[in-house]
């Protein structure tokens, strides 16, 4: 009887150890690169500010060219505040001021030849 209790205790200890060990991760999961779907919104970073794509309004009249997108990436980790950056428009896309609109409020980007998209300022330096 005593041998049976020792054997039962040993089997029970082994079973508990196995269950606990199987539930513990060996190494943390690695994170993968982020894609465009991870961005909060589509934007252009220009002149120290973030301008988000506005779907509500149409550009009435552009004023003058104020710059162009220097870097495009759909990888969130690639965002650099040292250039004119966009996660929505390709390198070379022209940026414009909008007639009678302060550049601190909104700018425009030529999204297609002769078509412009309004970008509203969302965040400052």
Structure description:
The protein is of the alpha+beta class and 125 residues long. The protein has one domain. It has one helix and eight strands. It has one helix spanning 2-22, and strands at residues 43-46, 49-58, 62-68, 71-72, 85-86, 94-98, 106-112, 115-123. It has an eight-stranded mixed sheet, with no helix packed on it. Residues 24-37 have low confidence and may be disordered.
Strand order of the largest sheet: 3-6-7-8-2-1-5-4
Helical segment count: 1
Q: What is the helix/strand order? A: HEEEEEEEE
Q: Which regions contain 5 or more consecutive residues with pLDDT less than 50?
A: 24-37
Number of domain modules: 1
Largest β-sheet summary = 8 strands, mixed
What structural class do you assign from the helix and strand content? alpha+beta
Number of strands: 8
- What is the percentage of strand-forming residues? 35-45%
Radius of gyration: 28 Å
- Average pLDDT score: 78
* Helix percentage range: 10-25%
The N- and C-terminal alpha carbons lie at a distance of 78 Å
Shape, per Cα inertia axes? rod-shaped
Write the layout of secondary structure elements.
Blueprint: H1 2-22, E1 43-46, E2 49-58, E3 62-68, E4 71-72, E5 85-86, E6 94-98, E7 106-112, E8 115-123
Parallel strand pairs: 4-5
Antiparallel strand pairs: 1-2, 1-5, 2-8, 3-6, 6-7, 7-8
Task: Briefly summarize what is shown.
This protein is α+β, with helices and mostly antiparallel strands. 17% of the residues lie in helices and 37% in strands. It has 1 helix and 8 strands; from the N terminus they run αββββββββ.
